[in-house]
Amino acid sequence: MQTIINIIVFFLILGAIVLIHELGHFLTAKLFGVYCAEFSIGMGPKLFSKKKGETEYQIRALPIGGYVAMAGEADQEDNEIMKDVPYERTLKGIKTWKKCVIMLAGVFMNFVLALVLLIGIYSFVEVQTNTSEIGSVVKNKGAALAGIEAGDVINKITINNEEHIIASFSDIQEVLDNENLQLDTDTVTMKVGLTRNKHYLEKKVTAKYNNETKSYVMGITAAMKQLTFAEAIRQGINQFIEYALLIFTTLGKLITDMTHTVSQLSGPVGIYTVTAQVTQTGSISTLLSLTALLSTNIGMFNLLPIPGLDGSQVLFALIEKVIRREIPTRIKYALQMAGLILAFGLMIFATVNDIGKFF
Fold first, then answer.
1. CATH number given to 128-225
2. Peptidase M50 domain: from which residue to which, for each copy (predicted)?
3. Which pLDDT does position 359 carry in this prediction?
């Protein structure tokens, strides 16, 4: 049963990301009067189709992509329906800036989806404060046994006569990290200076070593707080920028360190595995964060000037503007096919790489 739920969630996430991307292309194309014969979510055999106005809306069997069939695209030259479309209603017949807007609208919508999800998460989920205030104390652990209470604010920690000033909870984690302590014992005794109700106290705490975290643990958690909407917006934007920079760095390494980076790529199997792990935790906020990351990833990837991706369509449009003539359709089509083969090749390689991790 859990496997079925995992698969459904995986397809819903991919479907939503693809839908919002293609919707960006479709709505801007309609806005600028470009003829759209098909709006399809998914690839492969048709599962459902309905024609409304001049556009046929489709859902296809494989939720691994989607497309909008617009008049004037290189791969629509032989489409009988497109041959009677007025020139001014084709991609070739509109201004360059409008063409670029249409091609970038999918990426824009992916970024909007990611931002909306992240801001929504930070609007409803409590986050760790930037202070060293304790949120809770675990029973029968070092801190509780020493008399430390929730609401106490840790100011300093002294270990082996070395004093560490504490300003945030991350400072506590850094001090207790064994990479910094370099100890070879199961426990460590420390003096903890803290403030409680404006009074300064000192407690002697024994922390135990945790093999998983490679650090000493005294049994406390950070204080949490609910963000204001303005803070949620700022935090959501910061998280989006962090995602974008992470993906940008990874994509850059495809050029500078291709052999190593390609071996680390994840395909559909890897994405499904992560989605399944998150789904099983039952954390809606983590699932939405994953969706935001994937949406940002797809948006960033589509900006690459690889033929077949949105970035290349913008590049073609700008080149045609500069040289003041159209790039021959056969050249565009050949480049797009080469780009798609490259993209699918990477996906297949990544999928094989993912499967190899299980054996």
1. 2.30.42.10
2. 10-345
3. 44
* pTM (two decimals): 0.81
Domain ranges across the chain = 2-126+234-356, 128-225
pLDDT score for 332: 78
Higher per-residue pLDDT: 268 or 147: 147
- Identify the CA nearest to 208 among candidates 134, 146, 149, 130: 146
For the chain, state the CA radius of gyration: 27
Residues 130, 133, 136, 141: is their CA dihedral positive or negative? positive
How far apart are the C-alpha atoms of 298 and 114, rounded to whole Å? 11
pLDDT surpassing 80 at residue 2? yes
For 197, phi and psi rounded to 5 degrees?
Answer: 50, 45
> Which residues participate in catalysis according to the annotation?
22
- Nearest CA to 300 out of 104, 133, 58 is that of 104
